[in-house]
Amino acid sequence: MVALGALIAVPAQAAGNGVLHVIQGLPGRTLDIAVDGKTVATGVKATEVVGPLTVAAGARKITAKDGGKVVIERQVTVAADSNLDVVIHRPASPTAAPVITTYVNKLAAVPRDKGALRVAHTAAVGPADIRVNGKVLFANVANGESLDVVVPAGTYKVEIVPAGSTTPVVLGPLDLPIRAGYLTRVFAVGEPTSKTMNVAVATLKLPGAGSEKPGLVNTGTGGQAAGLGLTEDQQGSSSPLLLLVGALALMLTVVVRRAVRR
Fold first, then answer.
1. Domains of the chain and CATH, by start
2. What backbone torsions phi and psi does residue 241 show, to the nearest 5 degrees?
3. Does the global pTM surpass 0.70?
4. What is the distance between the alpha carbons of residues 6 and 195, in angstroms, rounded to a whole number?
């Protein structure tokens, strides 16, 4: 990938700026990315992330081309002082035209031993369950939806399966390291039948360390936090998974909010 510009000039009189990260979620394609007609990166392969791009707040036009042909062109709304992920991906149907889904990155401080995590379903499959360390933590997550949690730093084994099933595993299991003080964003892309399932992973440093209070489920854009039955040994464990499960059990009020699709 050849990045042509990580910073886009904005007028001095602009009401404010925002930051964009463009995630290439179309396996088998190599894209050139433009914002408001200005090329910011060329030769972008699947799972690569372009950015950060500083842009003026307001309606920004995102264009992706493959070999000079427009693959998708959409407007996204950028709020002042916002940080936004812009994902180019397939909807649930692998033969449908690509779409763009945006996710707002919440850059709030977390406890010093915790990290923030977002898992976004941007793969060309139907509703799915997200399993962490062998347990279903989020159920029935639809394409374009995401779930956000604050968890103890550590490495988690993550896999995605069709909703309500344990097989086939459409993605993973993969080891996902969560760094303390960072927001880790995970985007599932591709589709199973063509064996193109993959993930794009990106991190953002969060400002300052918060208190030592337990991690909480902050928000979600879909799916359901699944109830977990723990064994006696698991209940006596202080593993990161147990801490995560405890947080989920205390905070099952996941806010349902779809990300913005264009």
1. 1-89 (2.60.40.1120), 108-262 (no CATH)
2. -65, -45
3. yes
4. 32
